[in-house]
Amino acid sequence: MIVTLTFNPAVDQTIQFDEPMAPDHVMRASDARFDAGGKGINVAQFLTAMAKPCVATGVVGGFTGTFIRDDMRADGVETAFVEVDGTTRLNTTALADGVEYKLNHDGPTIEESDLDAVVERVREQDPDRVLVGGSLPPGLSVADVDTVATAGDWETVVDMEGKALRELDAQYALCKPNREELGEATGDDVSTVEGCARAADSFRSRGFDRVIASLGGDGAVLANGSDLLYAEALDVDVVDTVGAGDALLSGVVAAWEDGEDDATALRNGVAVSSRLVERAGTAVPSFDDIEALRERVTVREL
Ligand SMILES: O=P(O)(O)OC[C@@]1(O)O[C@H](CO)[C@@H](O)[C@@H]1O
């Protein structure tokens, strides 16, 4: 069973405009939606939609926290949140004339007692895998993620920005930087797929059994110590890319839960991610045909 941990959840507001963004001008939206978000929360929603046993934990507070609880309950996602005093953030994606703008808050301050309560929530679930995803709100540090990773007998998967990945100190089953984060974490040249694969492979020595780098339209690479695998992206109509990395990670972890090997897990991740980017925001799509879709993803050794 998987527990996802989101220290900094968000209500994701996605607003669409039919004209380019312009300063000093009231922009009138043509469409808008709100979704429960934050990286671990997205993963929990996608895993639940793929019928994989999973519980989402983390900290929520205020009216946005209530929205997240309600939204996840409506989607049938099991949760074990810790309620905090502050207000969970509201992050905005503005889609205007083919351009994607992403505006993220820093989130409410988390106290040490909140961290202890979260670790306790994780322990209560007795998970095989814990997935920690997203930024750290004020009050928390990278060392707190190491605390989670070492607090029990579980594998920990981590999805954080590059600088944070570099500062982690425990042993992790997997990290999943995007291209920019991989470059930031390693300082390597990530301008080509081969460069990303080399950087992912060398970054394993920093405490990761596997590194998967999500490369947007270029697909994804996976380094596990024996293989360097590359999966091409599927050719789909992209509405926006918010949550694409979370979807990739969900597909990978879901396949591992089924006992699949890394190559199949990577193909599944790319298929799940392709399905998500065809929708606005982090709304949960149907994954009913995901096995058929993954047959279209090619993986090769680099
Ligand atoms: O600010 P963070 O925690 O790095 O990222 C948060 C976030 O941008 O990531 C998700 C998509 O991956 C969204 O649901 C959410 O708004």
TrEMBL record:
GO terms for molecular function: ATP binding; phosphofructokinase activity. InterPro entries: Carboh/pur_kinase_PfkB_CS, PfkB_dom, pfkB_Halo, Ribokinase-like, Tagatose/fructose_Pkinase. Residues 7-285 form the Carbohydrate kinase PfkB domain. The keyword Disulfide bond does not apply. Gene3D superfamilies: 3.40.1190.20. Keywords: ATP-binding, Kinase, Nucleotide-binding, Transferase. Transmembrane segments: none annotated. It holds the Pfam family PfkB. GO terms for cellular component: cytosol. Belongs to the carbohydrate kinase PfkB family. This is 1-phosphofructokinase family hexose kinase.
